[in-house]
C-alpha cells in the first residue's frame, strides 16, 4: 500500500444520498450541456512532431525509430501511439466536473480478452500505463475517436462510422444508468464473461462473425505460459533460453558484454524479490516456487516502444512448468500535466492501483517495484504475466456491423470500470435518458479523426525533412 493513498474520485460524494448525487448530475448538465461535447479545439498552435519527440528523452535511443515506424503504418497505429497529443487536446474540451479512475488511453485496441483468476475468459480494458484520476469524458472521447479512425481505415461510410460511434457512446450512457441503480457490491462484481455474451448474441450476429469469434476464443485459451514455452524459448546447451528475434526480442547476453549481462541478471533477481512484496501473501508464496532462468528485452506495443520492457522466463517444478512474466517500465501518465500528479510514491504503484480499481478481474501476478538500475537510475516497473489467455480483436478485419457490436461491448466495459471509482449516480443523471450525448460524441469522433490525420501527415513530413528517424517492418 502507498504511504500516501491517492484519494478515490468518489470520496467527495460518499456521504451524500442518491437523490443529492442525482441533483449534482442534473445541475452539471446546465453548466456543461450535453451538446457541448461535440466541441473540439485541437491541433492548433502545436507541433505534433515536437510533442512526440518530448517523450523520446526517457526511452531507449535505438528503439525510438521502431516506435515511429510502427506509428506510421497507418493513421490508426499513429493514433494508438499518440496518446500524449490527445491528452493535451482533451484538456481543452468541456467536462461535467465528475472524476473517475481514468484509463488515459482507452482506444479500441486497448480492450481485450484474458483469463480471470477463476479461469473464465473475460473482456476488459487491458492497458493502464496512462491511468490516473481524471474526467470520465476523456476516456469516452478517446474510445469514440478511435472507432472513427478505425472506421475510416476500413473504408466505412460516414453514416456507418456515425452509427458505430453512436452505439459506443450509447452503450456507455445506458450502462452507467444501469449501474447507478445497482448496489455497490453489484457494481464491484459485474464483469463481462465472453462465452456468455457470445451465446446471448449468437442469434443476431452473422454466422461468419460467430465462427470468427469462436475461433478467436479457442486461440486465446491456448495463449498461456506453457504454450509460449516452445514458441518463445529453446534448449541451448541443456538450458532453457528465450529465442532471439532482434530487434524486438533480444536476450540479455546479446545486449551487453558477459559481465554486464550477469550484473543485469542479478539486478533483475533483486527486483523480483522487491516486486514479490507487492503481492498478497498467497500469491507471493506461489511466486517463490518459480526461479528466474533467463531474460530478454522486448519491444512492446506502439506507444510503449522504447520504454524498458523485459520478458522473464521462470521455471517451477521442472522445465515443463514455465511462467513467463513481463516487467515493464512505468513513466508519468500523459494525463498528469492536465489532471494533476499521482499521489502514489512511484508510477509502478500508480499503474497497478489503477488497474486493480478498474478491472473486474486482474492478473494474479500483477505487482510493482521501484529499483535502482545498474546505470544508477531509479526506475519504476510493474510486472504481470506475459500471456494468460490473452486475445484481442483484429480491427482491420471488422465489418461495420462487427465493429458496432465491438463498440457496444467496449462502451459497457468502460462504464463499468468508471462506475467502480466515480460517482455513477451523478454521471448517469448528467447523461440523462435521451441520445444527445451520443450525437455529440459521434460529431466529436469525426472531428478528431480529422485532427489525427493531419498530425499523421505532419509526422510523415517530419520523416521527409529528416526530423524523424524511422525503422519499419519491426
Envelope shape: globular
Please state how the strands of the largest beta sheet are arranged side by side.
8-9-10-11-13-12
Strand content of the residues, in percent?
A: 5-15%
Number of domains: 2
Head-to-tail CA distance between termini: 38 Å
Radius of gyration, in Å, reads: 22 Å
- Overall pLDDT: 91
Largest sheet: 6 strands, antiparallel
- Poorly predicted spans: 1-9
Query: How many beta-strand segments?
Result: 13
| Proportion of helical residues | 40-55%
SSE-based structural type: alpha+beta
Tally of helical segments:
19
How does this structure look, described?
The chain is α+β, with helices and mostly antiparallel strands and 474 residues long. The chain folds into 2 domains: 14-220 and 394-464, no CATH class; 225-385, no CATH class. Helices cover 48% and strands 14% of the residues. It contains 19 helices and 13 strands. The chain has helices at residues 18-31, 48-55, 64-71, 75-81, 83-90, 136-153, 158-180, 184-189, 194-201, 207-222, 225-232, 252-255, 258-276, 281-287, 336-339, 347-358, 400-419, 424-431, 436-464; strands spanning 99-102, 111-115, 121-125, 132-135, 192-193, 233-236, 239-242, 249-251, 291-298, 309-315, 322-329, 367-372, 378-385. The strands form 4 sheets. A 6-stranded antiparallel β-sheet has the order 8-9-10-11-13-12, with helices on both faces. Strands 2-3-5 form a 3-stranded antiparallel β-sheet. The chain starts with 17 loop residues before the first helix and ends in a 10-residue tail after the last helix.
Amino acid at each position: 500500500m502507498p504511504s500516501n493513498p491517492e484519494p478515490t474520485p468518489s470520496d467527495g460524494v460518499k456521504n451524500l444520498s442518491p437523490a443529492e448525487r442525482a441533483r449534482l448530475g442534473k445541475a452539471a448538465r446546465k453548466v456543461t450541456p450535453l451538446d457541448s461535447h461535440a466541441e473540439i479545439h485541437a491541433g492548433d498552435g502545436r507541433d505534433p512532431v515536437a510533442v512526440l519527440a518530448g517523450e523520446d528523452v526517457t526511452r531507449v535511443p535505438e528503439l525510438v525509430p521502431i516506435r515511429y515506424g510502427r506509428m506510421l503504418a497507418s493513421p490508426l497505429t499513429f493514433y494508438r501511439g499518440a496518446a500524449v497529443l490527445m491528452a493535451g487536446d482533451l484538456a481543452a474540451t468541456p467536462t461535467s466536473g465528475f472524476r473517475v479512475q481514468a484509463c488515459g488511453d482507452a482506444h479500441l485496441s486497448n480492450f481485450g480478452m484474458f483469463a480471470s483468476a477463476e479461469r473464465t475468459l473475460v473482456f476488459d480494458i487491458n492497458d493502464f500505463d496512462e491511468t490516473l484520476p481524471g474526467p470520465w469524458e476523456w476516456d469516452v472521447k478517446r474510445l469514440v475517436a478511435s472507432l472513427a479512425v478505425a472506421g475510416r481505415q476500413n473504408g466505412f461510410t460516414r453514416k456507418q462510422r456515425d452509427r458505430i460511434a453512436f452505439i459506443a457512446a450509447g452503450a456507455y450512457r445506458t450502462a452507467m444508468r444501469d449501474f447507478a441503480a445497482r448496489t455497490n457490491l453489484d457494481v464491484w462484481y459485474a464483469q463481462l464473461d465472453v462465452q456468455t455474451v457470445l451465446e446471448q448474441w449468437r442469434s443476431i450476429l452473422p454466422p461468419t462473425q460467430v465462427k470468427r469469434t469462436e475461433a478467436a476464443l479457442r486461440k486465446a485459451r491456448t495463449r498461456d505460459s506453457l504454450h509460449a514455452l516452445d514458441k518463445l524459448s529453446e534448449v541451448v546447451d541443456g538450458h532453457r533460453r528465450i529465442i532471439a528475434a532482434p530487434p524486438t526480442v533480444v536476450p540479455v547476453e546479446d545486449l551487453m558484454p558477459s559481465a554486464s549481462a550477469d550484473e543485469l541478471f542479478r539486478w533483475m533477481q533483486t527486483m523480483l524479490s522487491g516486486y514479490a512484496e507487492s503481492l498478497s501473501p498467497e500469491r507471493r508464496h506461489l511466486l517463490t516456487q518459480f526461479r528466474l532462468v533467463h531474460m530478454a528485452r522486448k519491444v512492446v506495443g506502439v506507444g510503449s516502444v522504447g520504454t524498458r520492457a523485459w520478458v522473464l522466463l521462470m521455471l517451477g517444478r521442472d522445465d515443463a512448468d514455465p511462467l513467463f512474466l513481463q516487467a515493464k517500465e512505468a513513466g508519468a501518465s500523459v494525463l498528469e500535466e492536465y489532471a494533476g500528479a499521482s499521489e502514489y510514491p512511484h508510477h509502478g504503484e500508480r499503474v497497478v492501483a489503477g488497474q486493480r480499481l478498474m478491472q473486474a478481474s486482474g492478473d494474479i501476478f500483477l505487482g510493482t517495484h521501484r529499483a535502482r538500475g545498474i546505470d544508477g537510475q531509479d526506475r519504476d516497473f510493474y510486472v504481470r504475466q506475459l500471456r494468460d489467455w490473452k486475445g484481442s480483436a483484429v480491427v482491420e478485419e471488422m465489418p461495420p456491423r462487427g465493429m458496432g457490436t465491438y463498440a457496444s461491448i467496449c462502451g459497457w466495459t468502460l462504464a463499468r470500470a468508471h462506475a467502480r471509482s466515480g460517482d455513477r449516480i451523478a454521471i448517469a443523471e448528467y447523461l440523462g435518458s435521451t441520445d444527445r450525448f451520443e450525437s455529440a460524441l459521434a460529431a466529436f469522433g469525426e472531428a478528431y479523426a480529422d485532427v489525427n490525420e493531419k498530425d499523421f501527415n505532419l509526422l510523415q513530413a517530419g520523416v521527409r525533412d529528416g526530423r524523424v528517424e524511422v525503422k519499419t517492418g519491426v
